[in-house]
Amino acid sequence: MIIKSKEELINIIESDKDMMKILKTVSLLDLPDWWISAGFIRNKIWDVLHDFNKKTEYNDVDVIYYDVSNIRESTEKMYEKELNKLNSEIPWSVKNQARMHLRNGTAPYDSSVDAVNQYPECPTAICIKLVDNKVVIHYDYDFDELFNGIVRPTPYFDNKKRKAIYLERIEEKYWHSKWPKLEIYK
């Protein structure tokens, strides 16, 4: 099955009890500029594309937020502990995007969305959150490509300086073995 629209994707996520439980759990922390990003959404889209009856297990659930007033990594670990108290079955990963530029060797990000837009692959550069119990999606790239399993580098990684990082991730992740319909550009 191919998802045909952003609205259809929202309906798929809202009808997934597990995804909604995870979103509601994260919303309880009330983090500034919070989102869940990357594989949590990307893998769901790819599972639907491949007509999988069973959800691909989470490697982690990437919770991101943006808080320039406190960029200590220990604060992120504290939030992970809080999430584990609420649901210990989920492999939580919490990162403050206000400090991630230090790790990534880039200019500081302006927001969580700015950081997501600069992830290596377009299908990973997606994030969702709840606003008034409704799913909100941020994705700045081509939805048709996303829904058809096309994997390209984001503009931030489609250059001589960073393309090697994108290619390394493609090799490392070995997504094509799990999702053979993917069209991965190298």
- Determine the strand fraction and express it as a percent band: 15-25%
Strand order of the largest sheet: 3-2-1-4-5
How many discrete domains?
1
Alpha-carbon distance between the two ends:
25 Å
| Biggest sheet features | 5 strands, mixed
Question: Helix and strand string, N-terminal first?
Answer: HHEHEHEHHEEHEHHE
Number of strands: 7
Return residue spans where pLDDT drops below 50 for at least 5 consecutive residues.
Answer: none
Structural class: alpha/beta
Give the helix tally.
9
Q: What value does the Rg take, in angstroms?
A: 16 Å
Structure write-up:
The chain is an alpha/beta fold and 186 residues long. The chain has one domain. It is 41% helix and 16% strand. The protein is built from 9 helices and 7 strands, in the order ααβαβαβααββαβααβ. The strands form 2 sheets. It has a 5-stranded mixed sheet. Strand 4 and strand 5 form a beta hairpin. The longest helix has 14 residues. The radius of gyration is 16 Å and the shape is globular. The two termini are 25 Å apart. The model has no long low-confidence stretch (mean pLDDT 97).
